[in-house]
Amino acid sequence: MHRHLHSRGTGAAIMSTAMNFGSKSFQPRPPDKGSFPLDHFGECKSFKEKFMKCLRDNRFENALCRNESKDYLECRMQRQLMAQEPLEKLGFGDLLHGKPEAETNS
């Protein structure tokens, strides 16, 4: 019987901790790359649609849609919808300095 009381006490302690967690104020943390505002005016909608179509057409293999992804991010940067970043830092260096390997082998 003592063991039953002990486990019940532990359960209450766990529940109490969960309730305390809910009462603490949540402190949101900004994204690593800063804000990424919504494109309210659809300035980059056509780029986003081309990228999404490419993903759908390629069974969501994002490596096959890198050009569309790069174009979309360039549009967002040009219109101050995201922080300016060098495309090399975003993983598109090979698209800037020559054709991607998949295209050079064909």
Automatic annotation (TrEMBL):
This is Cytochrome c oxidase assembly protein COX19. Coiled coil: none annotated. It comes from Suricata suricatta. Belongs to the COX19 family. PANTHER family: CYTOCHROME C OXIDASE ASSEMBLY PROTEIN COX19 (PTHR21107). The keyword Chloroplast does not apply. InterPro entries: CHCH, COX19, Cys_alpha_HP_mot_SF. One of its GO terms (biological process) is mitochondrial respiratory chain complex IV assembly. Keywords: Cytoplasm, Disulfide bond. PROSITE patterns: CHCH. It is found in: Cytoplasm. Residues 44-78 form the CHCH domain. One of its GO terms (cellular component) is mitochondrial intermembrane space. The keyword Cytoplasm applies.
